[in-house]
Each structure stands twice: as C-alpha cells, then as structure tokens.
Amino acid sequence: MLAAAGMAAVAGAQIAPIEDLTRFPRAVVEIETRDRVHRFDVRIADTPARQAQGLMFVRDLPADEGMLFVHEKPRPVSMWMKNTYIELDMLFAGADGRIVHIAERARPHSLDTIGTDVPVAAVLEIRGGEVERRGIRVGDRLEWRRVE
C-alpha cells in the first residue's frame, strides 16, 4: 500500500501536517489502451489540502497504485514534484476521460511546473516508467470509480 507519511520539515521550512494516505478516499482507475485495460488502485486527492500534499514524502509506489487528483470543473492544471521522492508519470484527462497530456518520469524534488493549458477534470499520478511500460498514450480513455 502507499507509504504513510508523518510530520516533516524540509530545509528548515515548516510543512503543514501531512495526512496519512490511508485516510484518503480510494478509487479504482482503469485505462483503456489499444490492446487491454490497465487497472490502478489509487487514493483520491479530493480537497485542497490533499491536492497540495499528493504523493509528497512517499518513498515507494507499487506499479499498480497511484494518486488521482479530481477537479469539480475542468481547468488548466499545473503540478510540481516538491518533496516528492520518486519519479512519477502524470496523465491529464479531460471531462470525457480521454487523456489529453502525459508527462513521463517527472524528476523528484523538481520545482518545475508540469501541466497543460487544456482544461482537465483529473490528473493521475503513477510510478515513473509505467506509461512507457504499459503503452499508455494520449487519446486513451481513463475511468474511475470510488470504492469503500
């Protein structure tokens, strides 16, 4: 399961309390590619605080897990890798679930912004390299459902 993080201070800066990822809501994400459906068990970043935290301080992410950032209304989105210890692939999906942009192998701790000017309804973060390994492409369809 996703590693849970406690309180943290980085480079002398105070960081807001980190919520245990096991408290985030869960979902199943399925990505339909040309030849198969890929399934991921994810946590949902559904509040501003959870979206700000994301996968910060996580040291290991299994290949079939991730974090889903859901937005009430589609909008352009920018992400970054501050305090993120692992490479991530980021998949940006429009309101129809189609992947409109993919950022592969985002560099840990980078403050560079990663995003799209195209409005998106969700961003899925998965372990770096999974997009290439699974053959996921722009235009593939991403669907999710909450689980209890």
Commentary on this structure:
This protein is mostly beta strands and 148 residues long. The protein has a single domain (10-147), classed as Jelly Rolls (Sandwich), CATH 2.60.120.1140. It is 7% helix and 47% strand. It is built from two helices and nine strands. The protein has a seven-stranded mixed sheet. A two-stranded antiparallel ribbon has the order 1-2. The protein is globular. The protein starts with 8 loop residues before the first strand and ends with a strand. 31% of the residues are buried. Residues 1-14 have low confidence and may be disordered.
Features of the shown structure:
single chain, 148 residues, mainly beta, Jelly Rolls, 7-stranded mixed sheet, two-stranded antiparallel sheet, 2 helices, 7% helix, disordered N terminus
Helix content: under 10%
Which CATH architecture? Answer: Sandwich
Outline: globular
Here the CATH topology equals Jelly Rolls
User: How do the SSEs run, as a string of H and E?
Assistant: EEEEHEEEEHE
Order of strands, main sheet, comes to 7-6-8-5-4-3-9
* Helix/sheet category: mainly beta
CATH superfamily placement: Protein of unknown function DUF192
Q: Tell me the number of strands.
A: 9
Strand content: over 45%
Count of the domains: 1
Taking the sheet with the most strands, its summary is: 7 strands, mixed
CA(first)-CA(last) distance: 15 Å
Please give the count of helices: 2
- List unreliable stretches of 5+ residues: 1-14
Mean pLDDT: 90
Radius of gyration from CA coordinates: 14 Å
Oligomeric category: single chain
- The level-1 CATH class: Mainly Beta
